Amino acid sequence: MADFDRNVLEFYQLSTPYPTEWPAEKDKSDGSDSEQDQKKKKLNRRKSRYQALERAVSNRASIVQGSEKSANGVSNLVQKDEPDPLGSSESVVRSLKQLGVPVQDDIRLRNRFLLSSTSFSPALFLSQMHTTADTQSLLNGLDVLSRSIDQKSASLKVLVESNFERFVRAKATIDNVYREMKYRGAEPPSPTRARAHSRHASKSSFRNSSGGAALGANLAASPLASDNTRKKNALVKESDYGVMGIKTPLLDVAAKAEDVWGPALGGREKEENLKTVSTSLDRYKEYIEASPNIADSIKRKDYEALVDEYARARRFADEARKLVNALGSAPPSETQTYQILLAARMWYDVEEQIQLFKRDVWRKLTSLHNISKAEALAGQPQDQHMELISLLLELGVDDNPIWVWLLSRYDYLKGKISSAGERAKVEIEVLRRRLANAEKPAPQMLASHLQNIGRQSVESKADGLDSPDVIELWEKMLAFLSTLLSAQGILGEVIEFWQTVEGFIDGKAQKSLPTGYNNESRDHHRLSQQGTVDLQKGTIELVEMIRAHVYEFFAGAPPEDVSLLFSPLPPSPGSPMSAGLTPTNMRDPRFNFDANNLPPPSPKRGESWEKFAFWPPTSNSVSGVHYLSKMLTLVGSGASEMASVTPVSQGDVKQVELLKGLVGAARERSVNALCAAWNKDAENIKYVEDWKRSKEMGDVTRMPASFASFEGALLSGMQKILYIPEAMAKSGSGDIVLPPPTKLLQMVRSQYVTTLYKALSGMVENAERAVKKADDEWTTDVDITVESAGDRTALTIGSGTVDPGDRNVRMLLTLGNLHALRTKVVPNLNGQFENAFSVKLTDESKTIKDVLGQIDARLFQTYTRPSLDSLRKIIRAGVADPKWAPPKPTEVKPYVYEALLTLVLVHTQVSTTAPSMTHQVISYLLEQISRELLDCLKARPKFDLGALMQATLDVEFFAQTLSQYTTERASGIQGEVYSMLDSKTDNQARARLQDELPGMREVLKKLREQSRSEFACFKRPRRTPGGSTSSGGAGAGSGPAQTLTLERTNTG
């Protein structure tokens, strides 16, 4: 057993019978063996019993089932899978996959495990496939392998026996060819002896084998061919060794080869010529490199290098021309010929490239205008045209690039003004027509926009000043004027164009321009006299085009022709795409032609805005004054800028007058349109009333503040329209923006007064208008249902909303509003008007004050009339009662309490609705009560003591209870009552009255104490020493009346 283990270790070259890992040197030796080393090993190793199998495996060409095909479709013997040669498994690949060897992904690695592959590695196969096999299993596998080899050897023997005749015939043919070549057709010598076949025979002994000897014997026995035939086919000298038949074609081929390759292989003369050419090329290397260098500079856009290379090429061409001129009729030398030819060829290529490049630069120069300012700011230099002009001057051109660029700039601006103006006006008209044909907005919608004035400044964002469609149209118009007249718009480009022209006319702009090759471009630095005049006229023409578009927009009627909308011209490469027009696919679909949605015709309803192209239909005056003030600022500033252009200011007086007329016409038309809208809004200002209390003044609604904001906004905006103060900031603008004419000022003055009257009338109409239903136009913001008188008088005290269904509440709030207008709002508006327009409203102020007083008095009478009628009815019924005068009265009559309770209701309503009106209303009613008492008492013929006492008690109770509201007029009427009583009584009653006065005082005091709670609202508040407010006692107001009574009694 020990010998067996030692043999195993020696055979596998192991150091221990139980190794723990695969020896690293075996991997290296196995992987590093090259194919040549393997071949050497195969040749050197000893022959074994398996040599036939190895030779068969390595050389056979039969196709084995399951073999693979290469990429070109040729089959090989390497199979995709095969059983284990040692018989342990049916699939080598599957077994290796289970062992974790990635043979499916790596074909080379898989072939090293397959016996059918030439790269099969036995060592790697055993180490991986049988890594856990013991000695016995390996011996069993060896037996299996031996039986398999024996089976394959037997099949090979059968193959050899079946093809033996083919081998013999092949050997005979080879021997015959060999003999013909060796003996040149003669008979070979007889062999001395036959050499036995050896297993180790070489290739040279193949003809002497047993098969060859037999074949030779047969040939010797057969009859030989004739000598001529043998010599013809023999490889002898006479037959040129068998090539006699192809000798002639070979000679022809040799001749042609000489013709083709002879000059190239042996032409010394041509070699000298080539040397001369090479020397010349080296000498004039710059000539050859000029054209590629220019092409490279153009490609790299290195224009400085391009100019240098072109100047060098022109210098080479000039030198060649001078050489030709110097030679005259003399023949040039070889070197001079090369110089002239190279220069000519170089100049042809260079000039062709430069001409193409010039055309491209001309195209860029004339198309620079189509680049928008945003694109220019993003990556292009502002003076790119100067760079292109400089480049053209450096390269040399026939036309003046300065004049060409200025002319193209003029054409571009002219087309841009025309297209921008015409297209924008058509788009504005389309929006205006659609807005005019839309449903007319309700007055409440207008009121909501006017209410926004007080909540936001007119100068701030204008979104809430009108409907979105109207605001959109205003913005469209403002954008149109801004495109034409702003410094960032077309006017700014025109002014910049003139400044550029002026720079070239003065010669300042040319200082930085090059003069070109040999100063050939210096003539282009100067503009001709006629060119200067043409540019000045062109600038005036551009100014006139802008003025005409703006003038037509303000002074002209709305355009009837909108055909431009239906047939837009396709943009050409030179068309001004930055003229404010959007591409067709990006344009608002409302401005595209649609046969199913044509713009409706302009309506004719007699509205004031129908004759103004610049006024959106249904627009209110607030949004109008907001946008018109901005638009007039653009017009004034633009006209001043246009007038400051030198050709206009110094050479064209007519154009200056036209610019003045532009400002005047735009201002007059704007004021006319605005006054019409102002007048209409004044009629609808009544809808602004929402019957919600003002946060600043609780006894008025938000109407006075809204009206003040509305009128203030109109006056402020009108002042900007008339005087255009922002445009006056520019020096010299006073010659263009003239002061407004007196006619316009008078129109605004008259309209201001008219709007006040209409607004006041609307307020009175709001107060007197009867409520039809709970959610009518007056109560849309309040969810209140009018059911009864109690509900109508119910007020939401402490909140911002009152009951608009109560007519008395509406009239009280309107009276408070009129009071606020008369005392605060209208004086402030008058002052604003006088400051804004530098006029005095002396007569108008007096008229407005009188009208306010009349309206206030009429509304006051309307409010107090129902209460006054009720009081008169109560007093007349009470005094006319037969039981009115008892013999000795001890209390006031019930009618007095009833009348005072009526006043309590009035006081409650007034004090909770319009507290500032309380004293005025109660005082007036007290005066009327006193007047009614006087009239009723006058109707009695005489007064006895009881009647005198009763009348005194009634009058004094009224006077003392309402002492807080006693006026001078009321006191006078009460004096008349006592005088009348004194005149209708006798001396006896007067004398007895003096005795009854102390008792009457006690009665009055008692009655006052008893009615303190009922009539507490009439008490006069007073300050206590501690600073708190309290009400006086019953006798606080009785002293004067009693004293008056006693005095009158004593005098009587």
Task: Give a structural overview.
With 1052 residues, this protein is mainly alpha-helical. Strand 3 (1021-1023) and strand 4 form a beta hairpin. Helix 27 runs antiparallel to helix 28. The model is unreliable at 29-34, 41-67, 69-75, 193-225, 569-586, 773-799 and 1024-1052 (pLDDT under 50).
Low-confidence stretches: 29-34, 41-67, 69-75, 193-225, 569-586, 773-799, 1024-1052
Distance between the termini: 175 Å
Tally of separate helices: 37
Q: What general form does the structure show?
A: elongated
Tell me what portion of residues adopts beta-strand conformation. Answer: under 5%
Strands in their spatial order, largest beta sheet:
1-2
Mean pLDDT: 76
Tell how many strands the DSSP assignment holds: 4
| Helical amount | 55-70%
Radius of gyration: 63 Å
Q: Structural class given helices, strands, pairing?
A: mainly alpha
Biggest pleated-sheet summary? 2 strands, antiparallel
